[in-house]
Design brief:
15 helices; mainly alpha; 361 residues
Length: 361
């Protein structure tokens, strides 16, 4: 390929990116034709292709990519010490051409495979929620409701000696949640499944990740080394991503919808505890005294779980976590979530609106 052909290829790729961006500007178009048309079919195709494999193909790819980056970096450092100045080759046009094309192709694949879901109308549109403003009064009421829900569900688990299942069964029960939810919300149909244990859970412990979705392979990964009471809601959250709910607040709410439509108390407790933490953090920003009072209303057993959660996080603190969280926050902001990592907390707006409409949680 001569020089003219190379730069023509780059121009065409750039125009394709511009076309993707233009397409994403119309949320209704994305919702009707991509999120409810192409995306469900394509994501299920990915799950059919890779779901039968017991380990995460995406994690393997990420692992090889990290090893390759380490190799290239080490090789260049070695050459530098030998006086060969490898940085000069990186100034060549051919290098920049390859780097540009790699970035552009990654952007295209990401958006075609899944990323356009960031621009959809989403779950609020599908179930007719009006996400209006809310204040301290609504936040306080939500905190009280979630305290009661968390206390009651935890009490049931303790009194009945309910044990946390092994990973395979946990994943099966998460699938059953969505199968049940799909009878009321057909757009939550989840078949086939592809939930897998993260190969890099130990890395996630030190970088703050409990689960993640791989948009290139369609796999949902769960960090099964975190405290067991967190894992059920993580499963529900990641499945929501697989179903095309890209924004974190929406994935949280969709996970709640699936869990609330079932009678699985173990999943319900995991959801109510997690949602309480989000709502309580938001209330703390409005009134720290009220937020602390709500925390004190949690039962001894629930507070013991929170203490275990905090201890786990403290035991896995590292220099890398703030950097990873900062980078991930930038990623979220770049994908229509201006609150960054606080986007997870914004599920409270959905919960408040849902309660106002249906008078239940």
């Amino acid at each position: 390929m001569n020089r003219t052909q190379k730069w023509l290829t780059s121009l065409l790729l750039f125009l394709a990116c511009a076309g993707i961006h233009w397409y994403s500007l119309d949320a209704e178009r994305v919702e009707n034709y991509y999120s409810q048309g192409f995306s469900p079919w394509f994501s299920s195709t990915l799950r059919v292709s890779l779901g039968w494999i017991h380990f995460s193909i995406g994690d393997m790819v990420y692992g090889f990519l990290v090893l390759w980056i380490i190799y290239v970096f080490s090789k260049n450092i070695f050459l530098l010490f030998r006086g060969k100045y490898p940085w000069r080759t990186w100034l060549q046009a051919a290098k920049w051409y390859r780097i540009f094309n790699f970035i552009v192709i990654t952007y295209l694949v990401f958006n075609i495979f899944w990323g356009l879901n960031y621009s959809r109308k989403g779950i609020a549109h599908q179930i007719g929620l009006n996400l209006g403003d809310y204040g301290k009064t609504e936040l306080l009421a939500l905190n009280h409701i979630l305290v009661e829900k968390a206390n009651n569900s935890k009490s049931y688990l303790v009194e009945n000696g309910v044990a946390y299942p092994e990973t395979k069964l946990l994943f099966q029960r998460a699938q059953q949640l969505y199968a049940h939810a799909a009878t009321e919300y057909p757009f939550l149909k989840y078949k086939p499944a592809s939930i897998k244990t993260s190969l890099w859970g130990w890395v996630g412990n030190y970088t703050g990740f409990t689960g993640y979705y791989n948009p290139f392979t369609g796999e949902a990964q769960v960090n099964t080394t975190v405290p067991p009471f967190l894992q059920p809601f993580i499963c529900a959250h990641e499945i929501a991503h697989q179903l095309g709910y890209a924004k974190e607040r929406e994935a949280n709410f969709v996970g709640y919808l699936a869990i609330s439509s079932s009678s699985d108390t173990l999943f319900q407790y995991s959801a109510y505890l997690d949602l309480f933490m989000y709502a309580n953090r938001q209330l703390y920003g409005e009134d720290s005294t009220l937020a602390r009072q709500c925390r004190k209303e949690l039962s001894t057993d629930v507070q013991a779980d929170i203490k275990e959660w905090i201890t786990f996080n403290n035991r896995h603190k590292s220099f890398a976590e703030p950097l990873v969280r900062w980078a991930y926050g930038l990623y979220l902001q770049g994908n229509q979530q201006p609150q960054g990592l606080h986007s997870y907390d914004e599920v409270t707006a959905f919960l408040i609106s849902y309660y106002k409409k249906y008078n239940k949680l």
